[in-house]
Amino acid sequence: MVNYSVVLIVLTTGLLLACENPQKAPDVSHIEVSSKIVRFEQELFSLDTNQLGVSLDRLMQDHPGFSDVFFYQIIADPQNRDEVEEVVSWFLGDSLIEDMARRVGEEFGDFAPQAKSLKSALQYFAYYFPDKAIPDIYTCISGFEVGAFSIGDELLGAGLEFYLGADYPHYDPNLFPVYIQQTMKPEFLVAKTIHALIANHMSDLPGTRLIDYMVKNGAELYIKEKLLPEEDPEIIHEFTEKQMAWVKENEAAIWAFLLEQELLYSIEYRKFQKLITPSPNVPNMPPEAPGRAGNWVGYRIVKAYMQTNQDQTLEDLLQIEDAQQILAESKYKPRQ
């Protein structure tokens, strides 16, 4: 087994920053983006329920692309399109949905800070991906169906009830355990929404080995960092401050664990699932090791690859075909 007491290296914040050699973010202030932000939940909850059919038709005509997905896929059965008015009537009158709407109004009544951050991220997106469409952004209340999603290349959605804070009483711990609730806070809304944008443009997984998942997930994190250059690493990687410190300090130990356990090229998903998906910890590692620790190493591999191959662009990262090639050309060496 790996001797974590030997591998653990405690670094000061200054040394960590020095090792990263952060590049200055480009100036994107001159880039105009025409994206609009639509507060769909406000329009929905403002419908005249005495004339629901008429007002609902008008809402759907105003926002056809988003409405088709929201009404017929998210909150209603797509096989029963004729029942949408009945479903919407129930949705608007449900006590839990009403409470969500109230809390969303309190938390996000002033959406200016989030709108500013989203606009900035889209400016960086336009800078790095000038040929791609800039989506409009729709906020909504989905009834705990989806927190961040894309609709084609033209629309992004954000289910605001997923970002009401860990103290929101309707976050059932059976559905949303503590390690999930730690990211269900307002400060995660922008980053999760932008992650949905990135994931929409990523190529399919190049394989089913752990290294394939790690590199693809690492590429998404690397791009997210570029689109949100002022965001805290904990928000980018969805770790607590303590977890973030642990993965930084134990990068070599995580890598050694993957090699020793012969997981890197494993195709047995259940063996490595918690290394790449949300989880309170990783089996056979110290209890401090957070779920998705493998994604952190994947991010470090991608970062090393981009530093070693400076002719590569973020557009190239979207089209990963060979994770093994990325690893080899990264010349990755975990921090000692």
Task: Explain what the structure shows.
The structure is a single chain. The chain is mainly alpha-helical. The chain has two domains: 37-201, no CATH class; 204-330, no CATH class. Helices cover 52% and strands 5% of the residues. It contains 18 helices and four strands. The protein has a four-stranded mixed beta sheet. Helix 10 (189-201) packs across helix 11 (210-227), helix 11 (210-227) packs across helix 16 and helix 11 (210-227) packs across helix 18 (323-330). The model is unreliable at 1-19 (pLDDT under 50).
How many H/I helices? 18
The portion of residues assigned to helices is 40-55%
The poorly predicted ranges are: 1-19
Radius of gyration: 22 Å
As for the number of domains, it is 2
Order of helices and strands: HHEHHHHHHEEEHHHHHHHHHH
The rounded distance between the terminal residues' Cα atoms is 18 Å
Q: Assign an overall shape.
A: globular
Structural class: mainly alpha
Biggest β-sheet: strands ordered side by side in the sheet: 1-2-4-3
What's the total count of β strands? 4
Strand content is 5-15%
Mean pLDDT over the residues: 92
The main sheet comes to:
4 strands, mixed
